[in-house]
Amino acid sequence: MGEWLRWLGEHLWVVFGVIAVALAAIEVLTLDLVFIMLAAGALAGALAAGITGNAVIAIAASVVVALGMLAAVRPIALRHLKQVPNTKIGVQALVGRKGVVLERVDAHGGRVKIGGETWSARAYDDTSVIEPGQTVDVASIDGATAYVYESEGPWPIGS
């Protein structure tokens, strides 16, 4: 038993290294971002043990780094992981885009080109009449009909 403890004392960096690898493997299975922070602490303990050879310094380094990672890094990492990208898909991706009037658009119908595709369109405001060649903004999409309103300002044609 004494021989075993002496070996552990001389190779403490290996013990901390094995603990770091084991904790990292557990993190892969749990994905909690807890065990990877503890693994970072164990890695710091391995470095401290390898440099100083002192068990007290290695354990202190391990605890300080693990607690620091849990307190400072984990909340930031979780916040970044939980952010939902604001990605619109399908026809909702067309809302807010520019288009060009191909056929006169009013409350009853018309045609516009949006993103390279031709859409049936209606004026968002029932009193508006938008002539061919004018640039419009897409207010909403209902089925295959784009509700549009005239853009304010010069915009590139063919959006």
Quick overview:
This protein is α+β, with helices and mostly antiparallel strands and 159 residues long. Helix content is 46%, strand content 23%.
Strand content: 15-25%
- Structural class designation: alpha+beta
How large is the radius of gyration?
A: 32 Å
Please work out how many helical segments DSSP would assign: 4
Overall pLDDT level:
90
Number of strands: 5
Pfam families: NfeD (PF01957)
InterPro entries: Membrane_assoc_protease, NA-bd_OB-fold, NfeD-like_C
Membrane topology: Multi-pass membrane protein
Organism: Tenggerimyces flavus
Would you write up a description of this structure?
- Residues 92-148 form the NfeD-like C-terminal domain.
- Pfam families: NfeD.
- This protein is of the alpha+beta class and 159 residues long.
- It has two domains: 2-81; 90-150, OB fold (Dihydrolipoamide Acetyltransferase, E2P).
- It has four helices and five strands; from the N terminus they run ααααβββββ.
- Strands 1-2-3-5-4 form a five-stranded mixed beta barrel.
- A hairpin with a 2-residue loop joins β2 (109-114) and β3.
- The longest helix has 27 residues, at 55-81.
- The relative contact order is 0.10.
Topology:
Layout: H1 2-10, H2 12-30, H3 35-52, H4 55-81, E1 98-106, E2 109-114, E3 117-123, E4 135-142, E5 145-150
Parallel strand pairs: 3-5
Antiparallel strand pairs: 1-2, 1-4, 2-3, 4-5
Keywords: Membrane, Transmembrane, Transmembrane helix
Main location: membrane
Membrane topology: Multi-pass membrane protein
Which descriptors would you attach to this protein?
alpha+beta; 159 residues; 2 domains
